């Protein structure tokens, strides 16, 4: 284990002379967005001594830990935070019984899913009820991870769907979206999220026949669509009760059914229940994860002692009297009864403050391989322990002070603390990272899922985790913590080789995500930043090419005729003379109407005009790529160097230039704008030069690419004929993504302050003294390909 970085909040000048013991809440989404609740106090002058406390819920991306975004501010204590499975909505519950669903604001004017724009979708209130635990309904989708299938080729065989039933379904088995909450009095509240007003429908039910007084609650899903609730009042002398909660829709009305299940007493109750001097109590209660209701973690402790007990639910066979209990002709002499069995106990001479359970859905039967999932525990004396998920043995143990250096970035007037007190701990989806909240700071630790803490995870398991993320649709930032800089190229090649062995539908499904993953991999090292910029530009080109081809629909669907997109591809493959007008003779303009059902071109013209920024980007990128060809013989690293040797990229640009020329006949307003010094036809000239470059890249011998003199002369005089745009429009050279991996750890950050190394990177960025590249101070939107202006406001920082 080692600390990657830690981030601290800015000091707020407020009159605060007291210390609060309220525990903050945090939740990490599948997109590696951490939501944290914190508090701050301000003194109002309405009356003497009046103090008003407000609680804030904010979040930040683990990849950009200096940017803090506020979600909401409440006057009540935040008790629960829970992300949905996709990581787009956040469920927030407080001590006053209010449940709110906050989601990223979708705006067609700016962009979709901005981290700095949040809106409350719906809310419900339970008067005078303190909410202790919340959980989203399960949608029935579970992709299991099996390390034993590391050598399997097909993704469908590697990652199989688990047998899970949705928590609530409509007619036809369609899952229903919603959440469930449990209060301190034992009241169960379930809400169904609706698309129309009212946006939420709520139903209430008690866990037992009477109200209770609870202090700890945990919720988990079962494979049969039920939910199991484990509850405790915090006293070691009382039992830990479990209940099965099932949901149903009867005539459109939500119904909740609660039934008691097997319960148990903590093992520490036998040793410490009668000893009043110890003042033992149940301090933590967690299921192994929300999809594993068969394992419960119970922490019993006092001020200077803690005992973590692991209990597992098994089917206990009880013999019955065959003569008294006969059911039918064949008597059943065994009665199956669920029973909690004690599996292990981990003791420590300090108070246990937090437990981080694994989140990766693993197969239940797994042999001892190189991949070792774990349970992380944090103690008040700063100790961290990693416990094996299946054997329940302590794999690693260390003190947080050795992972975290308090002198880095600290004020010289402040004295370092003797120990780091972790108040909250959470695992990432893959388990390769731990996020710790402590002492007003948030730290990210690098953890390897292996028994030997000094060894890193093997490249084969890293590839398996990355392929699982590609299929499951989650973020891969935490897995990159386990990647060695020297293995980046080999891992990318192995991912690409396995990709080409998949069926065509699977390749189409994860093609764009694989390209984005390769951009992230190459961005981890300073030596491969140029390659990351080229692959990002290639990703943008693939997206625009897919959009343009999807708009080309035939007038009549037949099995024999080719579609307009297929005709363009076939003609570009055959045409080698570079004459754009001769190629257009074989194409009909009517086939390239966006809406072929309309006979007039007005509707298509308006739609094409909205695509003008993307069309302009294709033309500008073609200009920049061709103008950079003379640099290829002298420099090996410049923006676009790796793309010039790729014949498929150049042929894609040729296809797009043909489509743009035909769309220009339909709607002249959609044509790209060029700043020229002569009356040259820019599109035709670009297609001609691009064809020559495509022929040279197709006829190259091995990795050696040579251009003829005529092509080099045309590319040298190209900037004098047409103004070449800024290089920042085509290549993401100033990207701050994955910049944490290029720094020496641990790195110190402060929320709201951009780190200094980003400014050094901008100053040291290479500028080519050439007429080809022209830099300006414009901010550029890489999604819509439009300029945002020279001065970008804070509200649009995430675009």
Automatic annotation (TrEMBL):
Task: Name one process (GO BP) from the record.
Answer: positive regulation of DNA-templated transcription
> Which Pfam families does the record match to this protein?
Med16_bridge, Med16_N
Keywords from the UniProt entry = Activator, Nucleus, Repeat, Transcription, Transcription regulation, WD repeat
Indicate where this protein resides in the cell. Nucleus
Question: Record keywords: Lipid metabolism included?
Answer: no
Q: Where is the Mediator complex subunit Med16 N-terminal domain?
A: 128-398
Q: Give residue ranges for domain Mediator of RNA polymerase II transcription subunit 16 central helical bridge.
A: 465-663
Q: What is this protein called?
A: Mediator of RNA polymerase II transcription subunit 16
Provide the species name.
Pinctada imbricata
